[in-house]
Specification:
By secondary structure, the protein is mainly α. 30% of the residues are buried.
Length: 798
């Protein structure tokens, strides 16, 4: 019975329970109204929206913070008091910024006086440790803070009856203009007001941040927020309002992403985004008084100005940022699509549309006087062209012309800016125009990337001397380790293309110098942005893998790694074989290429030599044949590689390789047999032996004599080479011994430094100078082409 009586005693009246239940239902309804589709929440409520000025809002925030401070003083909570004091200072900054006042308000001075009296009063009650620390810290902060307001505090203490110096403005009721979507589009264009369109625009923008509301809208109407915004552009009352809505449409389209973080924008959405950007440019060109500026805040008064307004209309936006985002999505699409499918080829056909957009934006920015932004757009155009040979450039120009003709046949459209990109006669002429503009107006990073693209293009056109001089003049190799990773990848690609160019023109030493840094480790794919390196030391996180995937170069921009490896190993073979023959009696001689020496040692240790299959096997077989003087066999092995067909001048390159192999065979023969087997050799016999003309033999042998590689002299009457036997005295022998010991000590120090730094050794440029691999030192004194490979490796792996 006691339980029953207690239960009925707590029941109370039924009216109270009903009223509580109604309040709960009402609160739940208000909470769930936020998930209704656009317009239902605003139209369903009977209350009017009240708009308060920003000044009143800021002063109300300050007043509420001061009340919280008073409460903290009453309960003696110094920790909370310290937090509210910091909030009060932030509110003061906002108030002074809005009111454009230099002097602090009386409300703030009054709060400082109350706080100072509280902290300086006697506190007999004991405090906790945290409260005591906060109390002492608060005293110091307040003392330091009150120094700049000391005059105002003294004035307030003299006359504390001063009232607050701020007058609140009257509240303004905002006109409702509540019209449903169906009614809005059923009205005539003259009946639609600017406020109606602006209200619907605000409703959509408020709903964009809610995933639930976006999903409900898509499920109910089959439309997205971008589709509704596009409908609003058709009934916009002013060009500025249409421009503002179009910017929001483009931003909403950027939110559409298939596949999460690793995905890309769908192709149809990307094309709509480009068309909307071209529409934006149509408006900006037609109404020249509308200015797009990202430094101004969005202002409704600007978008409400009519068409015939004479002054400047400023709309918040950034054309360069939109273009960079469009380029990024195009780039990501090429990264994610399988390059061996027709979808990849169809995606590449969209590039002329993007180039037309970029050229139009650059022209508009140049007319507006924004040369810095125009230089960024010019760099985007350069990075879309620099890797294309002239044949690919001509094919792209032809494809763009065909698409324009198809567009004309479909019917005329109201277009102001051109939809077709403007191409120069050649890719080189177009590059020169864009790069000269960037050099005049771009920032440092833009200039550096443009320079690297220019060098790449010159190397692609076999202009090695020009590309080399540009690289040496820019000194990019000295500062590349301090740049971002994408620029370092571009530098590595440029050096790889420069090495291929040097090989094609027959400069073996220069080609080996350019490629030796890339092949110093086993990370060529990663350094060129064409793959991932498998590290056994540590596992990469998902975020790191995603960042590496974003840095990958699309497949059509790749440099063939098999061709690059074949060129590098061939150059290393042509340099290392005579070097080994010249130092055959020196066990500690310095090798030109450690990679090929290591591969040759592995090949010689094998008990059975199988027929060559890979590129390395072919080069090793050619190296073994060349060391034995079988230059015909060495060339036939290299000639059997299919990778040489990637050179457009394949025959001339192979003829150059054959001539270099004969020269190397002659040098190797002279190094091997000159000192111990022969006292003289006939010129015509050497020419017949190696199938070289007598003039070439005379030139090669004379260079070896001048460089002191061969101790001999010419006997002109008999056309013979007379060798001299050189015997070193005791001083020279001791000098050679101490040189070898110093070399051994240097190598041990370098290995110790590498183990200490975790695999990163000393400056590689000093090693190249010791190994005589710096080809620029021979061309331009001691300045040299300094390529710090270790720093590049650190930058890419960061």
């Amino acid at each position: 019975m006691t339980t029953t009586s207690r239960f009925f005693a707590q029941g109370g009246s039924e009216s109270e329970d009903e009223s509580d239940f109604e309040k709960e239902v009402e609160s739940n309804n208000i909470r769930y109204l936020a998930d209704l589709p656009d317009g239902e929440f605003c139209c369903g409520m009977d209350t009017k929206r009240v708009v308060k000025p920003r000044k009143d809002k800021r002063f109300e925030e300050m007043t509420n913070t001061i009340e919280n401070m008073k409460h903290a003083m009453n309960i003696n909570d110094c920790v909370y008091l310290q937090e509210t004091f910091e909030k009060l200072n932030k509110h003061l900054e906002k108030v002074m910024k809005i009111t454009k006042s230099v002097k602090a308000s009386t409300l703030y001075i009054k709060a400082l006086v109350l706080l100072e009296d509280f902290l300086n009063g006697d506190k007999e009650r004991k405090m906790s440790t945290s409260n005591s620390k906060a109390f002492n810290s608060m005293r110091q902060k307040l003392k330091k803070n009150n120094m700049q307001y000391q005059e105002d505090i003294n004035r307030f203490r003299e006359s504390p009856d001063i009232e607050d110096d701020y007058e609140y403005e009257e509240e303004v009721e905002e006109p409702t203009d509540n019209v449903s979507w169906e009614m809005l589009f059923s009205l005539d264009h003259e009946e639609i007001t600017w406020n109606m369109v602006n209200k619907k625009f605000k409703e959509i923008m408020a709903a964009r941040g809610s995933k639930r509301r976006s999903a409900r809208l898509k499920l109910k109407t089959g439309e997205t927020h971008a589709d509704k915004l596009i409908d609003l552009t058709k009934i916009a009352k002013t060009p500025a309002q249409k421009l503002e809505i179009l910017f929001s449409v483009i931003s909403a389209e950027f939110d559409v992403n298939s596949g999460g973080l690793g995905g890309y924008m769908p192709i149809d959405v990307w094309k709509k985004c480009v068309v909307n950007m071209l529409t934006v440019l149509d408006i900006l060109v037609k109404y020249y008084n509308i200015v797009v500026d990202d430094t101004v805040e969005g202002n409704e008064k600007e978008t409400s100005k009519p068409v015939d307004y004479d002054g400047k209309i400023r709309v918040s936006g950034n054309l360069v940022a939109f273009l960079e985002k469009i380029e990024t999505e195009f780039f990501k699409g090429l990264q994610c699509i399988d390059p061996h499918t027709n979808e990849y080829v169809e995606r590449l056909k969209d590039e002329p549309m993007f180039l037309a957009l970029a050229q139009n934006i650059q022209d508009y920015l140049e007319r507006s006087g924004d040369y810095k932004g125009a230089s960024k757009v010019a760099l985007i155009l350069v990075e879309s062209i620099y890797y294309k040979p002239q044949e690919v450039f001509d094919a792209m120009k032809k494809m763009a012309d065909e698409e324009i003709e198809e567009g004309k046949e479909s019917g005329p459209t109201s277009q102001i800016v051109p939809r077709k990109p403007t191409f120069a006669g050649s890719s080189r002429a177009m590059m020169d125009t864009l790069i000269s503009f960037i050099y005049r107006n771009g920032d440092e990073r833009t200039k550096a990337r443009a320079m690297l693209c220019d060098i790449y293009q010159h190397a692609l056109m076999d202009n090695f001397v020009t590309a080399r001089d540009l690289l040496l003049m820019s000194h990019l190799q000295d500062n590349i380790q301090h740049m971002d990773i994408s620029t370092q990848i571009l530098f590595n690609r440029t050096m790889a293309q420069l090495g291929l160019c040097a090989f094609r023109v027959g400069m073996i030493n220069e080609s080996h110098s350019c490629l030796s840094e890339l092949y110093s480790g086993h990370r060529v794919r990663e350094l060129l942005g064409q793959g991932f390196s498998k590290s056994r030391d540590h596992e990469k996180t998902t975020e790191q893998m995603l960042m590496e995937r974003r840095r990958q170069i699309p497949y059509h921009m790749h440099i063939n790694l098999e061709l690059l490896e074949a060129v590098y190993l061939t150059c290393a073979m042509l340099l290392e074989v005579p070097n080994m023959a010249a130092n055959s009696h020196d066990a500690k001689h310095k090798s030109v290429s450690k990679n090929i020496c290591r591969l040759l040692e592995i090949s010689e240790r094998q008990a059975f030599t199988a027929p060559p299959e890979t590129i390395r096997d072919h080069v090793m077989a050619a190296t073994r044949a060349l060391t034995k003087g079988k230059f015909q066999e060495a060339f036939s092995v290299l000639n059997s590689l299919d990778v040489w067909r990637l050179f457009k001048n394949r025959d001339s390159v192979l003829n150059m390789v054959k001539a270099r192999i004969k020269e190397v065979a002659l040098r190797t023969y002279l190094f091997t047999y000159s000192s111990s087997y022969y006292k003289s050799l006939s010129l015509d016999e050497l020419a017949k032996m190696f199938d070289i003309s007598e003039s070439q033999v005379h030139s090669i042998v004379s260079k070896m004599m001048i460089n002191e590689e061969l101790t001999a002299k010419w006997d002109q009457p008999t056309q013979c080479i007379i060798f001299h036997e050189v015997q070193h005295n005791r001083l020279q022998s001791l000098a050679f011994q101490i040189t070898e010991k110093l070399s051994t000590l240097t190598e041990s120090n370098e290995s110790a430094m590498e183990s200490r730094n975790g695999g990163v050794g000393l400056d590689m440029s000093s090693r190249r100078r010791d190994n005589s691999q710096d080809y620029a030192a021979a061309a331009s004194g001691n300045r040299g082409l300094q390529m710090d490979g270790s720093s590049l490796t650190r930058g890419v792996s960061a």
